[in-house]
Design a protein that fits this description.
alpha+beta, 30% strand, 4 helices, 5-stranded antiparallel sheet, Cyclic Phosphodiesterase, Chain: A, 193 residues
């Protein structure tokens, strides 16, 4: 299992872009990312939802938390300008495993995810929503950490597992990613890197 996890981490580090729009996200510390990836690996292959025309399904290999998706800009400076005077870290607390139910979103899969609590993420999501043109179709922001896409109905057994509950971390960096996969790190304490 350790070898499979190491292979997955290499894939994670080299993941390009397959998005329709730009997004802002935060990365999860490596020690937490490894635990999330290991949990994803423990989900049996036959439960995974996969689409032969879209490799973004199955296990999530790019462990992150999206702050804002659907941005039409490809210019990282637009994000940087909004946060350049903040000088604040983002605090995150992980909760239990939960599900975005396929039947509620009219999709053929359930999304197994870790719930996330963070006033800071909510603040930045609102800031970007109100100040940057976007095509985000999700009216409510529910910060989360996706583990895997599973066939509709097979995610129920993972609900309320507390493998990650109470884990916390801070970051002082946002990542702006274009649809082409170009990523720019934006420090919340001093500009782009």
């Amino acid at each position: 299992m350790r070898e499979l996890l190491e292979q997955t981490l290499k894939i994670f580090e080299n993941t390009g872009g397959d998005y329709s729009y730009s997004l802002v996200k935060i990365e999860v510390p490596k020690e937490i990312a490894e635990k999330v990836l290991a949990f994803g690996i423990s989900i049996p292959d036959e439960e995974l939802y996969e689409d032969p025309n879209d490799d973004s399904f199955g296990r999530e290999l790019e462990t992150h938390i999206t702050v804002k998706y659907g941005l039409t800009t490809k210019d990282a400076d637009e994000v940087k300008t909004l946060v350049e005077n903040d000088n604040n870290s983002i605090s995150v607390k992980l909760g239990n495993i939960s599900i975005f139910w396929g039947n509620k979103i009219d999709k053929p899969y359930d999304v197994v995810k870790v719930s996330v609590e963070s006033e800071d993420l909510n603040k930045y999501h609102k800031l970007f929503s109100e100040n940057l043109e976007n095509k985000d179709e999700h009216p409510d922001y529910k910060p989360h950490l996706t583990i895997a896409y599973v066939k509709k109905g097979s995610g129920q057994k993972y609900v309320d597992k507390n493998d990650f509950a109470g884990l916390t971390f801070k970051t002082d960096e946002l990542i702006f990613k274009t649809p082409d996969g170009d990523a720019t790190k934006i420090s919340l304490t001093g500009g782009m890197r």
